[in-house]
Amino acid sequence: MEKENKAITSRDVDFAKWYTDVVKNAHLADYSSVKGCIVIEPNGYALWEKMQEILDKEFKKLGHVNCQMPLLIPENLLKKETELVNGFAPEVAWVTEGGNKKLEERLCIRPTSETLFCDYYHQHVKSHRDLPKLYNQWCNVLRWEKETRPFLRSREFLWQEGHTIHATSEEAEAETKQMMDVYYRFHHDILAIPSIQGKKTEKEKFSGAEYTLTNEDLMYNGVTLQMGTSHYFGQKFTKAYDVKYTTKENKEDYPYQTSWGITTRMIGALIMVHSDDYGLVLPPKIAPKQVVLIPIGKDAREPLELAQKLQKELVANNITTYIDDSDKSPGYKFAESEVNGIPIRIEIGKRDLEQNKLIFVRRDTREKIEVAKDIDVVKYTKGLLDTIQKEMYERAKKRRDQLTFEAHNLEDMERILNTQPGFIHAMWCGDEACEEKIKEIKGCKSRCILEDEKAIDEKCVCCGEKAKHHVVWGIQY
Amino acid sequence: MEKENKAITSRDVDFAKWYTDVVKNAHLADYSSVKGCIVIEPNGYALWEKMQEILDKEFKKLGHVNCQMPLLIPENLLKKETELVNGFAPEVAWVTEGGNKKLEERLCIRPTSETLFCDYYHQHVKSHRDLPKLYNQWCNVLRWEKETRPFLRSREFLWQEGHTIHATSEEAEAETKQMMDVYYRFHHDILAIPSIQGKKTEKEKFSGAEYTLTNEDLMYNGVTLQMGTSHYFGQKFTKAYDVKYTTKENKEDYPYQTSWGITTRMIGALIMVHSDDYGLVLPPKIAPKQVVLIPIGKDAREPLELAQKLQKELVANNITTYIDDSDKSPGYKFAESEVNGIPIRIEIGKRDLEQNKLIFVRRDTREKIEVAKDIDVVKYTKGLLDTIQKEMYERAKKRRDQLTFEAHNLEDMERILNTQPGFIHAMWCGDEACEEKIKEIKGCKSRCILEDEKAIDEKCVCCGEKAKHHVVWGIQY
Question: What is the CATH number of domain B291-384?
């Protein structure tokens, strides 16, 4: 085994530094002159484009259409729904001057767009014939965070926000569940992240929602990450924004609303779940580039010609492939393809060819595989990509399971959180006071209520009173 | 001929009102509660997505990669390049409060991102090996306009901004020209808009650019629209932002820079060039939906089954097709497909089928074409889409040519501008005073200098001194 990438701090030595080293060395993002905001560099943006491509297709298949609301929200409009404004007021940025003049009314940069969609529904939803409306937008939002970290938490981030409005609560609740399932499947099938899903507690739900469903990831170090939420609003917002429609029975009623979103934070999750001391490791299904071909041997024609031939064949079979025939040394190219997380590297050396060999290198395991040069390279590559995808998921699941614990009392909780945090299963009475008390241990919070999971105790992990919910707890980013 | 769409003012009666009626009735955009900002509705956004898809592919083919700079620019950073800040200062919006606190330094919402890219280059361009960098970003920008009009001019708009940096002026100038050609071809081949291209005068160029190339469209009413510009910056910005690199010869030098952009304004151009009193008319190559199938006859199985069969075949041949089998009346469906600009409508009536007929209706000419039901529908539709694309371009070109004039003196200019404005060709001495004087006639401005076109006079149209440039003039949106 070669030595690890020297530019990257070891994951086991300093996880936080390792993370930012990977972000920087894989050219995913860089800090900017704007405090708390990042530059998403081409490698990072290509990942986001790939995520958008897959999710957007899924959303559209389910009948959603894309649109675009304004970036700015007048203070007056934001204030109509009290819970929402209370939730977001401390973390918005205000535009107070425009065109060299002080504005009469402050405008906030959207932290989320429920208010704007409600304002639009107010104009456009009048009859049952106007329902449902299934909207989505891809955009930037801003939240004035104090502590920031590339992708995981930054003042500006990119996301999609779905907003739908329905005639019945049943339809709206089904939508809320359906979109959570889309996020869950995307995590498991594409990102190879074995997330869990459940319902947020009252304390942790989205300001203004009736309830929030959430998808929760576990990072390699045992810290949890909320990654994708889906909210059911009932009629809360439609009442606050006076969105009324005429039913089939010619009565007036308020429709039911949902929203759901997922962000560039997923890039952070990909790093913290899969990557290693050599840089980024990407599941093949989300990798913008899946294969790199490296011809070796200066002035040797055969390696380059074979690389060109293989590239054509692989690309024709929808495997994204590029050739690195730059004048860097082979060792440099190998390291670069590793730090960038290219799932498969095919080394085509003059001497290997003479011995009828090609070298395949898996990024995830760094295993070198010698194959005969006349094998069906497309078929072999496809198979290897599938294997990598599957094994990355299994490894992440094994790690998640290793870091999944049960706590039966506060001492258990403390012990776990002080030694090795993770997903902590424990029963809860439903009282916010117990959540507050548990939070005192290293800021541990309820991640989600598992509604269909059976009880592991009869009593609340904190107060010992009768337990109501099976909850997963953890320390969060 | 049926009567025109009653919700839409006639184009010949009130062009401005006609325009907003089309925007509204085709559900492209709506006004929002945020002054000067619009909601881009699904039909409008689908057009933008189609434009993005085609252009993005083109950009990437030429080696560009996408990235994302922050939304906000610190005042201090913006001020480094004097010309740019002077050009944009009157029209930016300032964030002065964030997270309930007054900020120490104002942040402006990006009106364009040259400063942010320069700040990034300053960190990342050190050696000739780092050059060229070919970046692009798709994002929103904000300019505090006083007079706004959906798509044509609004405070927030969506665009792409390409930013590249090169070792030599030759490379950078070639890039400037190349990207202008991409815009020009996109207009002619995809949007069916017979634009012209040329160089902006000193007075009209982008603040801070050495020169600006521009693509100019002519609207149906003879008003011109700047639609796509490409700037060559030379070393102006790299010097202002101290972007230095080591050349191959191990010397220090400043690299050369370009930027180029095109916006959602193109949607406005599509309307004003092609649409009519029945609503939107779209060239097939940019239409998000190219064909609508309308089965007619309640409880009749055959029309719907045939529609489903044809949809499958058309979609399999990459023709975007949908069926309208809602419970609206056929007349309503026809009008709706017209106002939305679906290029081809196929009416499948029970009685027509009995007579072995299908009805094709072209949106552009509203011509009804009876065809035998057993023709090769895919082949026929493909051919008809091509014909529509071609004829729409030819009609727009004919209109452009009708509204293209020559002026040999100021009296000509005045007469043309007072009767029917358009593209006005006239010679110019190069003196800004003459531009100012011509502007006094109805705000007429130079659109672009045609560098390769031959002179039509020896003297300047305004002052009568020796002419230097063949310029196209016009009234602008």
Answer: 3.40.50.800
